[in-house]
Automatic annotation (TrEMBL):
<protein>
    <submittedName>
        <fullName>DNA mismatch repair protein MutT</fullName>
    </submittedName>
</protein>
<dbReference type="GO" id="GO:0016787">
    <property type="term" value="F:hydrolase activity"/>
</dbReference>
<keyword id="KW-0378">Hydrolase</keyword>
<dbReference type="InterPro" id="IPR020084">
    <property type="entry name" value="NUDIX_hydrolase_CS"/>
</dbReference>
<dbReference type="InterPro" id="IPR015797">
    <property type="entry name" value="NUDIX_hydrolase-like_dom_sf"/>
</dbReference>
<feature type="domain" description="Nudix hydrolase">
    <location>
        <begin position="1"/>
        <end position="126"/>
    </location>
</feature>
<dbReference type="Pfam" id="PF00293">
    <property type="entry name" value="NUDIX"/>
</dbReference>
<dbReference type="InterPro" id="IPR000086">
    <property type="entry name" value="NUDIX_hydrolase_dom"/>
</dbReference>
């Protein structure tokens, strides 16, 4: 079983933006699951508007990488695939009703995110983007 997700990578000052959904105790790189036949960018724009109340500029999106991992809390044999993009945005970043809180994480916060997000953290650290 493949759980196909898209994530927005926003790095400022060597820290990456993460969000904790309401009712959960784990932080994630913002984004979510594709609906129907949505493209990666359509999914990304919709999810980020829903979660962080800002509008991404699709023409500025750059694919950073795609990661796959299993993890706790997933059905047996389930794999999460996360396609990661950077993109510029308009508006003021603010958690929506479905997000409990946002935080800016450094590499030291890696244990607080799921395994697939940890792979992204490793690459961002290796490239010098994540403090």
């Amino acid at each position: 079983m493949l759980i196909d997700t898209v994530a927005w990578v926003r790095i400022e000052g060597g820290r990456i933006l993460c969000a904790r959904p309401r009712g959960k105790d784990v932080f994630y790189v913002p984004g979510g699951k594709r609906e129907g036949t949505e493209s990666d960018l359509e999914t990304l724009v919709r999810e980020i508007e829903e979660e962080l109340t800002v509008h991404l500029a699709p023409d500025t999106a750059v694919h950073l990488g795609t990661y796959e991992a299993t993890g706790p809390g997933l059905p047996d044999g389930a794999v999460v695939r996360m396609s990661c993009y950077t993109a510029e945005y308009r508006g003021t970043l603010a958690p929506s009703s479905e997000i409990e809180e946002t935080a800016w994480f450094s590499y030291a916060d890696r244990p607080l995110v799921p395994p697939v997000d940890q792979l992204l953290f490793d690459d961002l650290r290796a490239s010098g983007e994540l403090a």
